[in-house]
Automatic annotation (TrEMBL):
The keyword Signal applies. This is Beta-glucosidase. Residues 1-23 form the signal peptide. GO terms for biological process: arabinan catabolic process; xylan catabolic process. Belongs to the glycosyl hydrolase 3 family. The keyword Ion transport does not apply. It comes from Filimonas lacunae. The lineage of its organism: Bacteria, Pseudomonadati, Bacteroidota, Chitinophagia, Chitinophagales. SUPFAM superfamilies: (Trans)glycosidases, Anthrax protective antigen, Beta-D-glucan exohydrolase, C-terminal domain. GO terms for molecular function: alpha-L-arabinofuranosidase activity; xylan 1,4-beta-xylosidase activity. Keywords: Hydrolase, Signal. Pfam families: Fn3-like (PF14310), Glyco_hydro_3 (PF00933), Glyco_hydro_3_C (PF01915), PA14 (PF07691). Residues 460-602 form the PA14 domain.
Amino acid sequence: MMLLWRKAIGSVIVLLACNHLQAQNLPYQNPNLPAEERARDLLGRMTLTEKISQTMNGSPAIERLGIPATDWWNEALHGVARAGKATVFPQTIGLAATFDTAAVYTTYSMISDEARAKHHEFVRNNQFKRYQGLTFWTPNINIFRDPRWGRGMETYGEDPFLTASMGCMVVKGLQGTGLGKYDKTHACAKHYAVHSGPEWSRHSFDAKNISQRDLWETYLPAFKALVTEADVKEVMCAYNRFEGEPCCSNKQLLVKILREQWGFDNVIVSDCGAIRDFYAKGKHETHATAEAASSDAVLSGTDLACDGSYAALEKAVKEGLIRESDIDKSVLRLLRARIQLGMLDNDSLVSWSKIPYSVVESKEHVQQALDMARKSIVLLSNKNNTLPLSKSIKKLAVVGPNASDSVMQWANYNGFPSRTVTILEGIQAKLGSNAVVYEKGCELVSDTVFNSYMGAGSFEGKPGFKASFWNTRDFTGAVAATDQVAKPFNYDAGGNTVFAPGVNLTDFSARFETVFTAPASEELLLKIAADDGYRIRVNGQEVLAYWNIGKQPRKTYRLQTEKGKTYQLQIEYFQSAGSATLQFDMGVNKAVAPEQVAARVKDADAIVFAGGISAALEGEEMSVDLPGFKRGDRTDIELPQAQKKLLKALKATGKPVIFVLCSGSTMALPWESQHLDGVIEAWYPGQQGGTAVADVLFGDYNPAGRLPLTFYATINDLPDFEDYEMAKGRTYRYFKGKPVYPFGYGLSYTRFTYGKAQLNKATVKAGDVVTIQIPVTNAGTRNGDEVVQVYIKNLQDAAGPIKTLRGFKRVGITAGKTQQVSIELGKAAFEFFDTESQGMQVKPGKYELLYGGSSADAALQKLAITLQ
């Protein structure tokens, strides 16, 4: 009997093994077949319900077919974002300012290395959540047409050619060479199209009355380049409407242009919530139901919805609004993309899986973050050669709200570095702490300074708060981790970053304790925001609490302290599910007169003021409504008044004042440009920004960044924010006024001169590739980089742009040497909008080539050219 039982079991095992072997030989599981063939086979094995489940960003596993779960939503704007530890490079507007396409390619190759290493580590731990996949929704190649747009810092500036050049390098760096079996990652060109604010109305805004010239010469060129030249694997359609129709169902944009004219057959993904905007009250309201909206979007070519709207597709099929075969087209593209990435195959077959996790924030990547921060810095003014500063300076004052703010340097859509060098720390490293005095002086928009007391308390003899964590919601069980925290809490698990090693991402609790002795009788502010619950106790009494599930905005408890009295402070927190966040700070507000700050630093040999704005004020659809700011956009382009007043007081000391401007967009700086001794634009410079700024200030690096934006003198130079017409004076291409600093502008610690340029051919035919040779001399005494720029003006088109960038090259030139700089002008360099055909054409006739070191007329030489 036992023998018969064993034989039966053996037969079953053999049968199962044979079935498994047969399953592995199904066409969609065969890694040697083309991705298209595999995807079609897999599609044919799926039910309608299974197909629809794959058309939303959170695509569940289909276990019977061996399809793992994935979330298509991932970010890598300037480093792998929201997934814990990663190298944080300068924000993209700063990368644009490098005017160095090769360096941008190298940067994004490093980012994709980190992306692959992190993804495979997640897979090894059976994690398939948001921000853990391989489809990255970057780059943002919208045109930064107006400096008031808060998301403009995510772009590559105001010029279509610069944007296209940078965007193509981002895509190639992220996706890999395309020569291997699998793509490295997939990039996404967003937000298609005609999208650049306002943030406050983006879910209902209609970009309308857009001329065909503006559409083809300004808003579409970068998208076309990424699709037709860089083979970008995804395009994201925008929130807004275009000429009355939502971008994610827009027949002209998606069907006629993207699919048919440009031949794009890869994935189109909606912006998050964009399909819901079709039918939600108070949004576009162009469709009556989710079924109608989802059907129209899919039929228009939008394959993936970043919201749950496509769940309505099953009902839509039953109602006859769409056919299953229409849905199949989208699902095929989605399955093919995952196969191209190797996501349906074993990691052992995917060469990218061999990238070690040690590349994440490796020494080489941190060095690249420093190199890119250096290259991005633009020297705007340098009166009397005040810069570079001497390292033998006896006393330097560092003032300003951005001097010691590490989070400001990360901008938005960021990862989390192990260490960030602030501007203050970078300067201290040059001179030593004893030679540097620091005064915050003011907040970004207020002259009332918040002084944090987070390090003033202590617990068990250690400064700050003792932190204890439990992997339960109610403080039960063993303590999972402890820590000592002397800085403001800024915990955020949204990128799968645990609060402390050994602590869960969800379902945990924490207790923070300190004993604080009041240094004065004053009002102590306890400021907290959290998701989920929290409670604060002072001397055992609960003073502020929200012990529920859900996100709570910042709240403040005001504690009147007595000098010398001791206060026991305890903060308890629990997290249930979703994204865990906890921010807490305690301290006092003190109104500081600018004259008082100036008096305290007037004995310094020089003053560095680090100010501007931050991603806490400008960004994507924010809740910030302050004077000059609205929902992430700006209503004014002036430097905030608190900073202007302080700068004037500092200048009145008679000491040299250097302004380090941190921002994601341009500011109106007419007074600052005239009166301050030096101004540098540092953007949001990433984790090594402080070192980079110090290197420029003290001459260890010769600045060569160039402006990817126009610095206007006043908001009166700008048309209405909601007006998308370029000819009304938008960007250097149409602006006829006098900017404070023009597009392409930037100074150096050396001086460059230009000789007479030559073309490689005497007769040029329409459609020819033309090479221009430009002799550039470093006439100064320091080695340095110059950004050689070539603009073209179509002399036959009075309604067209004044000039438009069509070539550039960043070159290093030794002091005293001359270099022949060769710039190739491709077939599209002479392509302009043609009113007769209502499209882009290269037409015979007269043109001007303008070449030099910026877009300013005074910086450019002219070369006439006639296309035969």
